Amino acid sequence: TDHAVDAASEQARRNAFLPDNTERYYARPPVFVRGWRSHLLDADGRAHLDMVNNVAAIGHSHPRLQAAVTRALGRLNTNSRFLYRDLADLSERILETTRGADGTSPYDSVVLVNSGTEAVDLALRMATIATGRRQVVTHAEGYHGWSTAADAITTSAYDNPHALDSRPSWVTVTDVPNAFRGTHRGEGAGAAYAADLNGVLDGLVDAGTAPAAVIMESILGNSGGVVPAAGYSVAMQEAAHRVGALTIADEVQVGYARTGESFWAFQAEGVTPDVVVCAKAMGNGVPLGAVITRKEISDQLGREGTFFSTTGGSPVACAAGLAVLDVLADEGLQANAKAVGDHLAGRVAELAAQHESIAAVHGRGLYRGIELVTDRDSLTPDAALTAAVCEALLARGVIDQATSERQNVLKVKPPLTLTVEEADSYVDALDEVLSRKWF
Ligand code: PMP
Q1: What are the pLDDT digits (tens) for 227-286?
Q2: Pairwise CA distance, residues 123 & 109, whole Å
Q3: Could you tell me the distance, in angstroms and rounded to a whole number, from the CA of residue 201 to the centre of ligand 1?
Q4: What is the ipTM of this complex?
Q5: pLDDT at 427 over 70
Q6: What is the best residue among 153, 226, 280 to mutate for testing ligand 1's pocket, by most ligand atoms within 8 Å of CB?
Q7: How far is CA 149 from CA 157, 213, 311, 320, 366, in A?
Q8: Which spans are transmembrane here (predicted)?
Q9: Is 304 exposed, middle or buried (0-12, 13-18, 19+ CB in 10 A)?
C-alpha cells in the first residue's frame, strides 16, 4: 500500500487539520516510506540523500536502536517515578560525555525530558529559581522552541517580523555575534560584540533587573550555522558571571558528536556553560531531551514545588538514549563527523572558485551552512537562488533546505553516518545545479 500513496492527496489530508502556519518542506513534498542510514526512500521507490536530518544522527532505521526500543517496549515502559536502571545508566553516560581533559566533569545533574522545547523551558525555570531573578538575556536571530517561555526567548525574525518588538518584558535581546555579516565583522568582532553585551548587562543591573541567565546556541544555527565571533563565547561567560547570571548553552541542534572535534559544541569554544540543554540526536527520533547542570542549581527547583515529567526519561526513551550513545561510540561517528565534515567543507570551498554565489562555508564537522549571495562585494543574500537550488537538488534526489534569518544558507546537517562518497555526491550535485542555472 505504500506505493499507492499520492503526494498531492497526502498534502491535502494534512492541510485539512493542521494550523495554516505549520512548517513543512518544499512546494511539492515527497512522501517518505523508508529510511536507511543517510537515505530516505519515497513512495515511488526513489532514494534521496538526506542532508538535513540532525535528528537521525546515527542514521535512519538503525537496527541496534530498533532492537533496544523493541526490547524495552516488550519488557517495561512506565512513568519515571518508578525505579529502573536505565535512567541512572543513561544519566551517568551523558555525564561521561562532558568530562574534560583531566577526566572530571563540571556537571553532576541530568534531568531527562521529552524534547528540546521542554529542556529549554526547564533550564529557564532552573536559572530563574536558582538566582531568584526573572530577566533572561537571549541573542537575536535565535530559535529555542515553541512553549510560551521558549518562544519568548526565540528572536528569529524571518517568519515573524515582530519578533524583536513583541518579546515579553522579562526578555532582553542582545546582538547575534555573527562576524561574517552583522553589526561587527571580521577580526575584533568578538570583542566588539562582547562590549555590546556588557553594555546590555550593565543596563539591566542599573535598572534593578539583573538577569538570571544568558542563553545562546553554541553554534548559531538560525544565523546559518555560524561559529560565534572569535572570543565571544568566553567573553559572554565572563560577562554573565560578572553580573551573577548563569549561562545556558542550547545544544539541541549542534551537540552530540555532530561538530566532530568535541562531543559538545561548547567544548570547542573553550567555555563551561552552567546549564546545557539537548534533545534531537539523543533519542535519534525517540522523544528525549535533557538538562545537564550542577546539582546545586537543579536542586533549587524544589523551592517551587516538585518537578516531574511522565514520559521524560521513560524506560523506552532511556533504552533509545543508551543505544544511540553505544552506536556513536562503536561506529566512531564523532570522528566520522570531523573527517567527512572537513572533507565536505573543503570541497565546497573549492567550488567557490567557480561559483561567485558561494560566499562562505560556516560551521564545524557535520554542522555546516553554505551561504549563497548575489555577489561577494555586497554579500546580498540570495534567498531565491537558495530556494531554487533546494528544489533542483530534490529533483536530483538530494534533500536540502534553506535556513538562516535570510533564508540564503543551505543546511548541511546529515546523519553522522555520511560517507565521503555521499558527501562527494552532494557537492557534485550542488556544482551541477549551480553550473547549469537550470532553474
Ligand atoms: N533549540 C534549538 C536550537 C532548536 O533548533 C530546536 C528545534 N528546532 C529547539 C530548541 C526545540 O526543540 P524541539 O523541537 O525538540 O522542541
Answers
A1: 999 999 999 999 999 999 999 999 999 999 999 999 999 999 999 999 999 999 999 999
A2: 12
A3: 26
A4: 0.99
A5: yes
A6: 280
A7: 17, 13, 21, 28, 29
A8: none
A9: exposed
Q: Mutate which of 55, 117, 159, 411 to test ligand 1's pocket (most atoms within 8 Å of Cβ)?
A: 117
> Phi-psi region for residue 243, left (φ > 0), alpha (ψ -120 to 50) or beta?
alpha
Who has greater pLDDT, 355 or 4?
355
Beta bridge partners of 47: 41
- Pick the residue whose CA is nearest to atom 5 on ligand 1: 253
> Which of 43-47, 67-71, 112-116, 416-420 comes out lowest in average pLDDT?
43-47
Average predicted confidence (pLDDT) for the chain? 95
Q: What is the mean pLDDT of residues 194-210?
A: 98
Do 409 and 402 form a contact (C-beta atoms < 8 A)? yes
Q: Which of 144, 215, 276, 291 to mutate to test the pocket of ligand 1 (most atoms within 8 A of CB)?
A: 144
- Choose among 267, 281, 341: nearest CA to 54: 281
Ligand 1 atom at shortest distance from the alpha carbon of 217: 3
Q: Give pLDDT, residue 438.
A: 58
- Which residue in 49, 59, 44 sits closest to 429, CA to CA? 49
Q: Is the dihedral of CA 233, 237, 242, 248 positive or negative?
A: positive
Q: List, chain by chain if needed, residues with CB within 6 Å of any ligand 1 atom.
A: 115-117, 120, 143-145, 217, 221, 250, 252-253, 279
Nearest CA to ligand 1 atom 15: 116
What is the rounded CA–CA span in Å between residue 125 and residue 134?
A: 9
What is the number of the ligand 1 atom nearest to the C-alpha of 251? 3
Lowest mean pLDDT among 11-15, 182-186, 346-350: 11-15
